[in-house]
Amino acid sequence: MNTNKKEALLHAAKELFGECGYVETTFKKISERAGVALGLLTHHYGNKEKLFLASGLDVLANFLEKLREATAGATSGFDGVMLFCRTYLDFSIDKDSNWLVLVRCSPYSDMKTKTDRDIMDSMFSQVHQELEQIIVRGIKDGTITNVDSKATAQVIISLMVGANRTKVLTPYACPSLYEDVLAFVSRAIRA
């Protein structure tokens, strides 16, 4: 039963951190949303910063799993990059993904301590590494033009981040933004 309560607290925290941000999310709001006694938050997570980090790490772990699942069956490096990008963008608008926690919990956003930033940075670097490996595969199999894999992964991730922030945080994203971004990536890397 404690595991279910701990999971309920984490789920409520992810929702509220995504909706309200770090400052506006309180332990009281989390416990009320989860329907769990306030004291269990401290018992399971210690403090708000630790819960924020746990929320971000949980969403990021699910994100990495989705990226790996999507690209595992790619027939080529090029197909892998396109699946990676499609999955990235789809995850970012999936209402059940709690994506906004990552937007707020990146090592460059609301993380309060250097230790927490370093932990998140380490996890985020896995996203880059996954993409870089797929690009290397595409260069080797001839489906991706000969590029600097590390720099190209950085540019593509930056494009995904920018497109996502434009789509979910601004009122001026064109309806075809994600499709346009995918077409741009395809033109840029295809051999």
Could you describe the 3D structure shown?
Helix content is 79%, strand content 0%. The chain is mostly helical and 191 residues long. The chain folds into two domains: 1-46, Arc Repressor Mutant, subunit A (Orthogonal Bundle), CATH 1.10.10.60; 55-189, Orthogonal Bundle (Tetracycline Repressor, domain 2), CATH 1.10.357. The longest helix is centred in the C-terminal third of the chain and has 28 residues, at 114-141.
Percent of residues in helices: over 70%
CATH architectural type of the largest domain: Orthogonal Bundle
What is the molecular shape?
elongated
**Computed structural class:** mainly alpha
The average pLDDT score comes to: 87
Radius of gyration: 18 Å
The CATH class of the largest domain, by name, is Mainly Alpha
Uncertain stretches? none
Percent of residues in beta strands? Answer: under 5%
Succession of helices and strands? HHHHHHHHH
